[in-house]
Structure formats: C-alpha cells, structure tokens
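Agenda item 2: adenosine-5'-diphosphate complex prediction
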Amino acid sequence: MLDTEFFLRWMRATATAVDREADRLTALDSPIGDADHGSNLQRGFLAVQDALAAEAPETPGAVLVLAGSRLISTVGGASGPLYGTLLRRTGKALGGAPEVSDADFAHALRTGVDAVATLGGAAPGDKTMLDALVPAVEALTQGGTFAAARAAADTGAQATIPMLARKGRASYLGERSIGHQDPGATSSALLIAALGIAQGGGAGE
Ligand code: ADP
Ligand code: MG
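Presented output:
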C-alpha cells in the first residue's frame, strides 16, 4: 500500500530531480521553445515543497491536490497548468483514503493523464509530455512495477526526438522541431522515475 508519506517522498524526489536537471531541461527547451522549462519547474516544485511543509496534508489525495494547485499558481508556462492538472486530477481520483493500493494509484494516474490530454488537446505522437506519461501509465495499469514505468517513460521521452511537434510552442517550428527531445517528456520521465526513488524510501540526494 502507498501511504501519505510515500506521496510526500514522491513530490520531494521530483523536486530534487528537477532541481538537479533544471539546466538540461532548459537546454532542451532552447532549440524548440523559449528556454524556461527547467526554471519553470524548479520554481514550481520549490513552491510545492513549501506548501507541503506548511500545510501537512493528511491523505495521499490531499498531497497531490495541494501540489497540483501550487504548480498551477506558480508556473506561468504551459507546463504549470498541465502538470498541475495531472496531479490535481490524480489526487481527486484517489479520494480521501489514508493509503491506496498500487492498482488504485495506477487508475488514478490514468485519470490525471487523461485530463492532461483533454486540457492540452494532445495525443501520443504529438511530441509532448504525453509521450512519456501515457506509456508509463499503461505499464502501471497492466500491473508493471515503478521500474517498468520508468523504463517506459524514458523510452517514450527518447522517442520524441524524431517527432514533429503538433502542440505547444515547439509546434510553431514545424519541421524544424524534428531532431530534438521534448523537454516536457523529459521532465515527465523524471516525475515517473521519482516514484521508484520514493518507493525505495529515499527522496533523492
Ligand atoms: P512553455 O511552452 O509555455 O514555455 P514549458 O517550457 O514549461 O512551457 O513547457 C513546455 C512543455 O510543455 C513541452 O515540452 C511539452 O511537453 C509540454 N506541452 C506544451 N503544450 C502541451 C499540450 N498542449 N499538451 C501536452 N503537453 C504540452
Ligand atoms: Mg518553455
């Protein structure tokens, strides 16, 4: 079972990974965007850490709803509302239970990923965060481990390199978006990898 502490570790491990990889995320957002993805998420997840420390939410769902709300209110770019919706909708789907099963979490995360697709109007293959999130959530709903989800997300992020961007800023570049890894798919792979770190009991170094 996954308890509130697990979800707090997940958010902390994500914040640590985003902080460590901020320069790389921003560098990826440079040729096909406006070079702010790393700093956007760094600011957002720092605010999430502050909010979680201040409010001490008591259930898994409340952790994710608070984290998502904070991302929406602190990240100006497209990724703030999208990641915020992902976490808020996943948290709402978890309801008020004090702990949740792996299967409950997988289905809740699918609700969150579906909400991102609805909000952004994107589908897998459009060179967005969904290219990492959708394969990861498919692995989890099929009963796969967090390690399997991480591998699926990493493969999905790398698969964005030859894609033509159809959504977001990168789509303005048309054919010139080809040949670059999508920054949002890359940060989504970090979010998924953080599940395994949280399960291991750690929160990242
Ligand atoms: P902005 O594009 O506003 O500068 P960020 O740089 O923080 O925002 O985030 C860019 C990332 O957001 C992209 O790499 C992509 O993965 C994701 N993204 C942009 N638009 C969409 C969309 N409509 N649906 C899903 N993801 C999107
Ligand atoms: Mg950007």
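Discussion summary: The chain is about 65% helix and 0% strand.
Owner for follow-up: CH.
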